[in-house]
């Protein structure tokens, strides 16, 4: 079995899928690996070339002290020492070594990754791991928005959320469609919660691994693989109630703006549209929200990227990958 990557817009059900697959006797998937992003950028075009030994020490220290990597909860000191002593190692070898160590610590032979933000790095990941497979999880953007604004402060702008969700979906699909046939599988969150056994059997077939009924009992061991800061739903059996929350929790005004901004993507994915034809006032409201909201969101994204880049370059600790943009 080859490595695989679970991608998708944040709050789309990627964590749920990770926990289900982690309950397989042969698969281990750690917490997110957003901290790899600056290394992808730094090594772009040189993925199969050995990392300079001096740079390798910096990268290793950056990973070792990174708050997000610490959530993997594994003792990697010996692995890091071995990597540094080896001196010449490529980025895919560095990644494979850490993921494989994580899997071995869990007593499993195969590894996967669940990092939603890798939606923009599909081409790079394919170059790093030519035989790897991808699972793209899609969820109705209005439910994504509702979940996101509960979890993260400053994400209340519905027009920006709609634009960002639409961009992520289309960016991932565009890159996935450039890959060889049979390399990726697309999954709707709504289908997963409605027919979990069928969808997981399909994924197991895609990954060429035997389906295990115990996978759907993931919630019994969720605490082993994830912190309590996540939604309480992942510590419970799958429920149909987690779909289409937008119908009764999203205001009419916000739904109208979301549908206006993300109309094409919602329509293409066959999600229901209930707002009808947009009038001039609705266009003005959406435009104003984008005018005031996009610069703020762009700053957040660029700032996080720069913090990660600086941390990787100087081997410093950062919480930026985990949502708190600090550098120490």
Automatic annotation (TrEMBL):
Keywords: Transferase. The keyword Transferase applies. It holds the Pfam family Sulfotransfer_3. GO terms for molecular function: protein-tyrosine sulfotransferase activity. SUPFAM superfamilies: P-loop containing nucleoside triphosphate hydrolases. The keyword Transferase applies. This is Sulfotransferase.
């Amino acid at each position: 079995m080859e490595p695989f990557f679970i991608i998708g817009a944040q709050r789309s059900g990627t964590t749920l899928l990770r926990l289900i697959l982690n309950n397989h006797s042969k698969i281990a998937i750690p917490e997110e690996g957003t901290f790899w992003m600056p290394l992808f950028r730094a090594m772009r075009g040189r993925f199969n070339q050995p990392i300079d030994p001096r740079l390798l020490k910096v990268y290793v220290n950056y990973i070792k002290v990174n708050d997000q990597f610490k959530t993997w909860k594994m003792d990697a000191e010996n692995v890091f020492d071995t990597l540094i002593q080896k001196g010449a190692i490529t980025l895919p070898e560095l990644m494979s070594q850490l993921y494989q160590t994580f899997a071995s610590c869990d007593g499993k032979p195969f590894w996967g990754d669940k990092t939603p933000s890798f939606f923009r790095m599909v081409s790079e990941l394919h170059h790093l791991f030519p035989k790897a497979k991808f699972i793209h999880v899609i969820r109705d953007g209005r439910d994504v928005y509702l979940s996101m604004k509960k979890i993260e402060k400053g994400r209340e702008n519905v027009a920006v959320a709609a634009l960002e969700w639409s961009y992520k979906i289309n960016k991932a699909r565009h890159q996935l469609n450039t890959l060889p046939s049979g390399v990726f599988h697309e999954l709707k969150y709504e289908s997963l919660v409605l027919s979990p056994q069928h969808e997981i059997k399909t994924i197991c077939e895609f990954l060429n691994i035997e389906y295990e009924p115990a996978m759907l009992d993931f919630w019994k061991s969720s605490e082993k693989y994830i912190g309590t800061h996540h939604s309480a739903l992942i510590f419970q059996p799958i429920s149909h109630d987690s779909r289409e929350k937008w119908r009764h929790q999203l205001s009419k005004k916000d739904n109208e703006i979301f549908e206006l901004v993300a109309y094409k993507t919602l329509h293409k994915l066959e999600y229901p549209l209930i707002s009808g034809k947009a009038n001039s006032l609705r266009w003005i409201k959406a435009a104003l929200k984008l005018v005031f909201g996009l610069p703020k969101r762009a700053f957040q994204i660029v700032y996080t990227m720069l913090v990660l880049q600086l941390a990787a370059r100087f081997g410093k600790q950062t919480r930026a990958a985990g949502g708190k943009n600090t550098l120490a």
